[in-house]
Amino acid sequence: MKSGFIIWYESCSSDLEAIGITDISLDEILLISRATMRWSKFLPVGVLMAQGRAIPMPVLPPSTTNVTISLGSSSPDLLRRAVPTGLVITHCTTPGIVALTFDDGPYIYTSQLLDTLASYSPPIRATFFVNGANWVSGIDDESTPYPSILRRMLSEGHQIASHTWSHLDLTTASTAQRVEQVTRLEDVLQRVVGVKPRYIRPPYASCENGCLEDLEGMGLHVVNFDVDTKDYENDSEAAIQVSVEKFNNELGSNPQTDSAIVLSHDVHRWTVERLVGEMVATIRARGFGTGTVGECLGDPESGWYA
Question: pTM for the full model?
């Protein structure tokens, strides 16, 4: 008997049996309506949690207090490890992890941020959704500090992910522009650090009008967030307290069930100089761990890059 997740899915016994789930009587697994799902087949727990449609045990709707399920030997890895494409991920699938993410860099404050993250015991691993030409240009120009900063991110265990080449709104972009925004950054990152990210955050958290389909066609996991610090609105010594309080109010309090993907930016001084320290203090006071987006989605490091 396995335990840990609740799903809702209807009329799926044959699909569940196909991956080794038998004796369905719904103690660990609920069902999700086919009408809400893109494909008429079973979706792994990781997919549903990423969509906010699955929740960790022991939370149970009142109508499911006396139901059980058995899992075949082949299913646990499938259930826990799959990271979807073709949808926007906003939630971790691993309770107890807070994934700190930083958009728009690298920039002049990024080295200081890396120093701060490395100063903790154990060091904090974050996710950097980087641009090729946004606040700076020439992230592959060895006469600038930025190639070394990118290599340091990788060597210190952080996850490098895509935020497109020039921060173009992918909702209003054409398919050709979307491909160019992704592949141009991929080519530079491959040359500088030797990896091509499989994870992307669309600029402005905006991905409509065929954007998801185009990114799915490129094999990319689209990740937004469920806690937005709004640090980009509060980049001053006094105003950053608004972001601190917003984070404290929106982060859950129970690491047995709660988690978060947090949006902030390494291009803002007061994010680096104050907000990060305040967030880490709250995270640790509430008993949470930290990790990359890949880790909070149960994806091994081998899955982060092409």
Answer: 0.78
* Residue of 27, 91, 103, 266 marked active site: 103
Least confident segment among 38-47, 61-70, 75-84, 229-238: 61-70
Phi then psi for residue 188, to 5 deg, are -70, -45
Within 8 A by CB and 6+ apart from 275, the residues are 229, 231, 240, 243, 244, 247, 264
By the 10 Å C-beta count (0-12 exposed, 13-18 middle, 19+ buried), 21 is classed as buried
Strand bridging mode 88-89 / 221-223 = parallel
Q: Output the 3-class SS for 159-218.
A: EEEECCCCCCCCCCCCHHHHHHHHHHHHHHHHHHCCCCECEECCHHHCCCCCHHHHHHHC
The model's pLDDT over 166-176, given as tens digits with 9 standing for 90+, comes to 999 999 999 99
Q: Which of 214, 265, 268, 299 is catalytic?
A: 265
On whether the CB atoms of residues 222 and 207 are closer than 8 A, the answer is: yes
Give residue-wise pLDDT tens across range 32-60: 333 333 332 344 445 555 555 444 433 33
Active site residue 167: no
pLDDT of 102 reads 98
**CA-to-CA dists, residue 142 to 132, 147, 151, angstroms:** 14, 6, 12
The pair of structure tokens assigned to 149 is 């900063």
Asked if 141 is an active-site residue, the reply is no
Calculate the average pLDDT of the chain: 82
